[in-house]
Write a structure and sequence with these properties.
- The chain is an all-alpha fold and about 160 residues long.
- It has 9 helices and no strands.
- Helix 1 packs across helix 2 (about 15-25), helix 1 crosses helix 6 (about 90-125) and helix 4 (about 35-55) packs across helix 6.
- About 5% of the residues are buried.
Amino acid sequence: MDATLHLCWVFKHIPFLRTLVDTCPPSIAMALMPKTKGYFDQAAQLGGQIDEILDNPMVMQAAEYDTMYHFFITKQGDSKEGLPKISEDKAKVKKWLLHEGLNLRFAGSETVGNACTIAAFFVLRDPMVKYKLEKELKDAWPDVDEPLGYEALERLPYLVSS
C-alpha cells in the first residue's frame, strides 16, 4: 500500500488521471504502472462492500459498528455535497462512495502508521516504559495464540495512556 499512497496526491492534483485509471482495465493499468496494484486491490475490496450495500441496504443494520457507509448513506439527505441520490443513479453513487472510501482508507493508514511508528520508537527507547507495557500486556494476554478483543485492550490503563 505504501507504493500506492502517492497516487492520492496525484489524483487530487491531476484529476483526469483518476478518471483514466478508473476507466482503464486493471491489467493494463498495472502493466503500465505496477504500483497501482495496491489501488486496484483496495478498490476491489471496497467495491464489493459497496455493491453488497447498494443491492441490500439492510446489511448495514447487521454490522456490529457503524462504518463510513452508514454515515454517507444514512445522512444522504442532510446536505451531502456531491453524493448522488441512490434512487437516481447507483453507478454514480458507487463511484462516489468508492472514491471517498479509498481516500479515507489511504489517508487513515498513512497517519495511523506514522503515529504507531513514532509511538513504538519512544516506547522502545525507554526501558521502564517498555517493561511496564510488556508486563501489562502479558498479564492481560497470557496465551498469545488466543485472540484478545479490542474491548480488553481498551481496558488496559498503561497501553491506553501510552
